[in-house]
Specification:
Shape: globular
Distance between the termini: 55 Å
Helix content: over 70%
Strand content: under 5%
Number of helices: 10
Structural class: mainly alpha
Radius of gyration: 18 Å
Order of helices and strands: HHHHHHHHHH
């Protein structure tokens, strides 16, 4: 069922994927790490359908499954999805809660996250920018500076790709995008 659901997700047929993921999750033992993956995928499928409350319920279940496991990548990915759901639903306090949980989780993992640690930190910092754009304009400049400071430590091409991805996430805020792009261009020497 999980494999069938993956095929539907790749085809962007989220309703059919959700049906197969629900069947799969009913067949799994309650403490199976695969159940965490099924709930994560269900949450992502419901997010794609715009059903954020249902997505949040499945993502919280996945969070609980991964919290006790040694699966840093999936745990942090679920925290990111929970943050995105809260942002989409306009839940400032909840978004802040998941943002802080992601920070504590990535700090607590240290080297456990392996090669993905730097990317995880960069993603956390991009979420800080998104939060500032939406709810905390006074922290936008420091959030952008922290993001760019981290990006400078990355391969320039990879950093520019991440900057472009953040620009797309911020597409509703023209002033924030302009500020970010100007800072990014200066940071990478594209403006004189």
């Amino acid at each position: 069922e999980l494999n069938i659901a993956d095929v539907h997700l790749k085809r962007m047929d989220t309703q059919e994927a959700a049906k197969h993921l629900l069947v799969a999750s009913d067949c799994l033992p309650s403490r199976s790490p695969v159940l965490g993956l099924a709930n994560k995928r269900l949450g992502a499928a419901y997010m794609a359908m715009g059903r954020y409350q249902t997505a949040t319920e499945h993502l919280r279940a996945a969070y609980e499954q991964f919290k006790g496991a040694r699966d840093a990548a999936n745990w942090l990915a679920v925290l990111d999805l929970l943050f995105s759901c809260a942002m989409a639903r306009g839940k400032k306090d909840e978004a802040r809660q998941w943002l802080e949980a992601a920070k504590m989780a990535s700090d607590g993992l240290g080297g456990e996250a392996g090669g993905s640690a730097r990317a995880t930190q960069q993603h956390y910092l991009s979420n800080c920018v998104l939060f500032a754009v939406k709810w905390d304009k006074a922290r936008l400049r420091p959030a952008i500076d922290a993001y760019l400071s981290s990006a400078r430590k990355m391969d320039t091409k990879e950093a520019l790709v991440r900057l472009d991805g953040l620009e797309k996430d911020m597409s509703g805020d023209k002033a924030g995008v302009l500020q970010l792009l100007q800072a990014g261009a200066r940071a990478f020497g594209e403006l004189k």
